[in-house]
Design a protein that fits this description.
With about 325 residues, the chain is an alpha/beta fold. The strands form four sheets. It has a seven-stranded parallel sheet with strand order 3-2-1-4-5-6-11, sandwiched between helices. Strands 12-9-14 form a three-stranded mixed sheet. A two-stranded parallel sheet has the order 7-10. Helix 8 crosses helix 10.
Amino acid sequence: MKLLVTGGAGYIGSVCAARLLEAGNEVAVLDDLSTGHRDAVPDEAEFIEGDVAEQADAVLSRGFDGVLHFAAKSLVGESMQDPGKYWHGNVLTSVRLLDAMRTHGTPRLVFSSTAATYGEPEQVPITEDAPTRPTNTYGATKLAIDHAITSYAKAHGLAATSLRYFNVAGAFDRFGERHVTETHLIPLVLQVALGQREHVQIFGDDYPTSDGTCVRDYIHVTDLAEAHLLAVAAAKPGTHGIFNLGNGTGFSVRQVIDACREITGHDIPAKLAERRGGDPAVLVASSAAAQRELGWQPKHPDLATMVGDAWTFVAGRAGN
């Protein structure tokens, strides 16, 4: 298939673009490089530098079999401080993409959604029918896009799938996680091992978990990419499928830090800080629907593999 990957210069988008190419697809990447990296775009992919909202119509006029939409603003804290940036950058951009797809008859869409659409869960593991009550603007914009996709699918026959990620980790070949503003736990811990920061913070150790720290569901980025390949193939006209992607088990903050210490061989000092507002004790996904309907199964569920692959990537770039 001929596929357009928006945001394909970012972490997850670049890995998915690489796997799509390996699977024999023709891939074009559309990215404005505001947070992505030009050298993260796979060599075999066509690269188009530009804003999705401005360029989607012209690009899709060339004829594509589908779009994988990763391009988004994704910093939770920033979304609360500058909500307009997120409503414009995420929601309006996505609606313009949907309109361009309709205009040019692009039949398939796979959307990069998030567990942030659920907010504070009533029970875990979280299933797709759980209440969606996002606690931040970022999650609210992603939920709004999901609603828009549902209506376009019903009205115009779009074959669409939203994949709601939990915590993504690891690396694939030369493609890995390197955000300008880093907020994710594993890369932050690895920065301590690299000597790029003095310590890692643990935000609260009095949660009702086995060691008092928050528990999160982690998924290897290559497993995530496989789900996208399956979703492209399985999408049905007029239908919008929504699937959670996670391992179904969680790891605590202390477990992640300990795994990073073991893999890197570094001490990695950790300092306790106050709880952050809105941090649930446990966030774990049920991926039963994705396994049942997409035939997806995570192949790298162990924390050591995720941390090890991430460490190989960042240490290699740092020359360690």
